[in-house]
Design a protein that fits this description.
This protein is an alpha/beta fold. It is built from 8 helices and 10 strands. Strands 3-2-1-4-5-6-9-10 form an 8-stranded mixed sheet, sandwiched between helices. Helix 1 packs parallel to helix 2. The two termini are 29 Å apart. The structure holds NADP nicotinamide-adenine-dinucleotide phosphate. NADP nicotinamide-adenine-dinucleotide phosphate binds next to helix 1 and helix 4.
């Protein structure tokens, strides 16, 4: 997916890991951030090399083909709805609608964060991705000779093909889990990942692998 311009909304754990790697893979990265001139932002730009710039959120979205939404779930609605026009954009939803102690999803089981975001971002092709891997794994999906699996889902095939190529470029084995409604499963999978990381004390440097024959 050369020649795509990718906006990364949110420069926390996920935004930093994906943005800096995508910039080093020669994508044009537009960080959409609350404060484009903060010290933190300038450090991230330096870490990202020459292919990245920092902009206000709506400006980054306007100039991008692909928008990676990497913000806290509780802020997602306001941020998505602050963008005047989502038509023609691919919106990659990384969020998980976590409750305060990270023990449950607040929107399951009859909808998902991705389906709610699709209602707010009218005209965007929403692809759920990067929600059930940790940010350390986004920074490096390789485990010896194995690659972590990246599950994606969405209703538009062309958008999923673009995100599949992006995920493979980052080093993941990408599996299409179906229509956007499958986000209900991918978000529960993230819950299980969080359970293993926090309650089973596995840390954050592990990932799921899909075996097939
Ligand atoms: N951490 C993980 O390993 C992981 C893995 C999979 C999915 N996720 C999901 O991905 C999303 C981002 O996770 P994260 O760990 O990157 O979160 P984080 O470290 O808390 O960063 C979120 C970023 O969102 C931006 N933001 C915009 N408006 C905000 C507001 N009002 N309050 C706070 N932040 C605001 C901030 O960037 P600016 O300061 O640049 O505006 C902030 O750095 C979450 O929904 C999370 O559930 C996380």
């Amino acid at each position: 997916m050369r020649n795509k311009t990718i906006a990364i909304i949110g420069t926390g754990n996920v935004g930093r890991a994906l943005g800096s790697r995508l910039a080093h893979l020669d994508h044009k990265v537009l960080y959409g951030t609350r404060n484009p001139t903060s010290r933190k932002m300038l450090d991230l730009l330096q870490q990202s090399g020459g292919n990245a710039v920092a902009l206000e959120i709506s400006e980054a979205v306007k100039k991008a083909d692909v928008v990676v939404l990497a913000v806290p779930w509780t802020k997602a609605q306001a941020i998505v709805q602050s963008v005047p026009d989502w038509k023609g954009k691919i919106l990659v939803d990384c969020t998980n609608a976590l409750n305060e102690d990270l023990s449950a999803l607040t929107v399951a089981p009859t909808t998902s964060a991705a389906e709610e975001i699709a209602k707010w971002a009218k005209g965007a092709a929403v692809v759920k991705a990067f929600n059930s891997v940790g940010s350390r794994v986004m920074a490096n999906p390789q485990f010896g000779t194995d690659n972590a699996v990246l599950f994606i889902c969405g209703n538009e095939l062309e958008a999923k093909t673009i995100i599949k190529t992006m995920g493979e470029g980052l080093g993941f084995d990408v599996t299409d889990a179906g229509d956007l409604i499958s986000a209900r499963y991918l978000e529960q999978m993230a819950m299980f990942w969080i359970h293993l990381a926090l309650r089973q004390k596995m840390g954050s440097d592990f990932a799921f692998k899909l075996l097939k024959r």
